[in-house]
Amino acid sequence: MRIENSFIMAPGVGEKTEKKLWKNGYTHWEDIEDGNPNIRSEDKVRNFIEKARKNLEVNNEAFFGTQFPNKSLWRSYRNFEDSVCFFDIETTGLDKDRNKVTTIALHRGGETKTLVRGENLTRENLQKEFFNSSLLVSFNGKRFDQPFLEHSFDMNIENPHIDLMYMFKRLGYSGGLKQIEKNLGVERELEDLDGREAVKLWKKYEKTGNREHLDKLLKYNKYDTVNLQELLEIAHQRLRAEVFEPHLDSE
Fold it and tell me: What positions does the domain YprB ribonuclease H-like occupy (predicted)?
């Protein structure tokens, strides 16, 4: 499912109206532009589609981030997937007022970059990474990772943000990232590691300077972000089947 299949952003279009449009064969912006959907505020909908199309042509994800309801932002993934940034942080603890960010892994365009405290983890580098990202994807990042980064580096992260924790709750899954991975059969290396062990690895590295501890932490951090992409693919497919496909005519 793509942005062009969505009408819920337009004035006067709620979930019921959007479903009715899909069921009646209006499954793409082009169908509205070429047809006569006979809905209220039809002119406003057409005007909005024209505006939205112009923003899509210049890859302005920020526009759609403000127009989509939060629970529908996943629909924009296919349009911007090459510049989507899957990210995850590791810290010395859970309190952003007392603890520090140690590493952050950023997976974008098939490559993973890791920023490390005391080396390249700076406000400037974070701003650069997020500037080059159309959309952010995390697990529980809206409540933890993003506010932790904003507080620690005195910055505002304004990218549209998909939090997979809420997507999977909508699909009936509960628990943390690793539990959901197991439920879905998503494999990872270093299964013996968790957040507490990650803190211990950083402390060992900080105390001894032994790079092996840091390398293990970075590997753990990397797999968190790489797996986020696989999880989003699964969630996207299932939500498309749940939200969009039931209202399509058999083709």
Answer: 85-233
